[in-house]
Amino acid sequence: LEQQLRQAQKMEAIGQLTGGIAHDFNNLLTVIIGYTEMLSAAPNLDEARRHQIQTIDQAASRASDLTRRLLAFGRRQPLEPRKVEMNRLAANMEAMLQRTLGESIEIECVLAGGLWPCFADPAQIEAAILNLAVNARDAMPNGGKLTIETANTRLSEDYAVANADVEPGQYVMLAVTDTGTGMTPEVQARAFEPFFTTKEVGKGTGLGLSMIYGFVKQSGGHIKIYSEIGHGTVVKMYLPRALSEAEQAAAVPQSDTAAQP
Ligand code: ADP
Fold this sequence. Notes:
Elements: H1 2-40, H2 47-74, E1 82-84, H3 86-101, E2 105-110, E3 118-120, H4 122-138, E4 144-155, H5 157-162, E5 169-178, H6 185-190, H7 208-218, E6 222-228, E7 232-240, H8 245-251
Parallel strand pairs: 2-4
Antiparallel strand pairs: 1-3, 4-5, 5-7, 6-7
């Protein structure tokens, strides 16, 4: 399972890298192809020159074809956000997490009653929880406790001011807490960076948290780490509350349903 997780992280990163490079490279090729076309249209070209320009044009076109294929390979799987009952999703994962983390780690789920549904891709939420749990286990080599907690949360204007990129509003919070080594402020500051890892080669890719960050941001959510050396770490993930059908209807104003005072 871990092997699969690491493999998925690597493929995702390779996809992003190749996608980015292919995109930029294709723009450069467009310039080359554009100018060779202009050159070949010039009057009084001798046969040798025309052949040279044609050769440049053919090579550039082949390269362009290659980058198109790379782009197709690197294209990210689109997110499939849906209304998700986070409690049910977390509860369904508990047995699998216990098997993955081993007996030395106790798992507790503290699931809030009356939890709002959230709106996000359930497969990505599961991947995020698994990533966070594996990180927690790595931080507890001598065993410990992993707590998964959910809560309805209102992120206030004040909180949004104190934390970049947060929209104040209603969120479903999922917190993953461990009693592990904790992070130094330096590690905490860099934890979301792609490829940042403190783990030995082959154990960490440094992509887990950066992927979670990307997913949460794309979902209109927010993520925050609280950590204390020697005590442990809490990662809090906030996903937007899914609107009820009535609220959804209200959010899309219709011409025949004028708002009542
Ligand atoms: P990886 O786990 O492959 O190193 P991540 O992006 O998931 O990549 O994590 C980056 C770094 O953040 C880790 O190498 C580790 O130093 C730190 N980290 C992440 N989660 C925890 C945790 N629960 N406790 C302590 N440190 C953590």
